[in-house]
Design a protein that fits this description.
single chain; 299 residues; alpha/beta; six-stranded parallel β-sheet; three-stranded parallel β-sheet; globular
Length: 299
């Protein structure tokens, strides 16, 4: 059993991405990938924030895909924290009006949040408060203010994000992106933070401190960033998994049929080498997601 916590699936993707010329995944592309990789079901994360280099999706499209492929897709929702306008008048209650009806529609979480706003910006804080009240976990992408990429903004060491973690202890944050996973190592530099640092993970990584200090912090292992955090130092990966096995989530984040993600091979390789327990592997592959999202799956 495998639950992919991070998928982007479109009913009819049309926008071709610079560099490799392919679109995001169609439902048919994603199902074929899942069947090939042995994935039971996948969470569809709508890309809504305008900074994201992808087509925007309505909740209606997501729900239609989930109805078309029952038991294969799980709906997430997304709200741009800058909407509605006039931020000085936007209170938590307004976000609650938007989010609360989503529960009845089967939505399981929020993401992928990619807005270029500081973690502790007032609109973000109201949005987080509403998500905490509704009980939606959040999958986010982060970057630094000096980088031109998309994602919630923070400096080295996550000072803003730490304040948010402390302020919303019942809200589960699933961290994702190069700027998140690079800080697993204590020697990361500002130049490396938004990339894929190689070499052994050194002690003192800020991410380890935050994981140990805040039980509401979790890790989305998807994409090249999550894979690099594991693969760059398998000794550290084994220790990291042993310590935080209840808060790590398997994902792929395929944005193109040309992607080639090796997450399952790395994790099962650790298991075969006796460096991860069978219980920890099952937690990461599906049990943690099953518990967090209330999926009701049984082996």
């Amino acid at each position: 059993m495998i639950v992919d916590i991070h998928a982007h699936v479109f009913a009819r993707p049309t926008r071709r991405q610079p560099g490799h010329g392919t679109t995001f995944m169609s439902a048919e592309d994603q199902i074929a990938l899942m069947d090939r990789k042995g994935v039971t079901c996948a969470c569809i994360l709508p890309l809504l924030n305008p900074e994201t280099p992808a087509e925007h999706q309505s909740l209606g499209e997501i729900l239609s895909l989930c109805e078309r492929y029952p038991n294969r897709f799980i709906p997430f929702y997304n709200v741009d924290p800058r909407l509605p306008r006039r931020p000085e008048t936007v209170e938590t209650a307004r976000f609650l009006e938007i989010l609360q009806p989503m529960k009845a529609l089967g939505v399981k979480g929020i993401g992928e949040v990619t807005a270029r706003l500081p973690f502790d910006e007032p609109r973000m804080l109201r949005f987080f408060a509403a998500c905490e009240q509704v009980g939606f976990p959040i999958i986010f992408h982060t970057t630094t203010p000096n980088n031109d990429g998309y994602g919630l903004l923070d400096e080295m060491g996550f000072p803003r994000f730490e304040r948010v973690l402390a302020q919303f202890p019942r809200l589960v944050f699933l961290g994702h992106s190069p700027a998140f996973w690079s800080e697993i190592s204590g020697d990361v530099t500002p130049e490396q933070k938004n990339g894929y640092p190689k070499g052994p993970v050194r002690p003192g990584g800020r991410l380890l401190t935050l994981f140990r200090r805040y039980p509401n912090l979790a890790g989305d292992l998807s994409a090249g960033s999550g894979l690099n955090a594991l693969e760059r130092d398998l000794d550290h990966a084994a220790d990291f998994i042993a310590e935080f096995q209840d808060r790590l989530y398997f994902g792929y984040d395929y944005c193109s049929v040309k992607n080639n993600m090796r997450h399952l091979e790395v994790l099962t390789g650790l298991r075969k080498a006796g460096r991860m327990t069978a219980e920890a592997l099952e937690k990461i592959l599906w049990k943690n997601a099953n518990r967090l999202l209330g999926l009701g799956l049984t082996a």
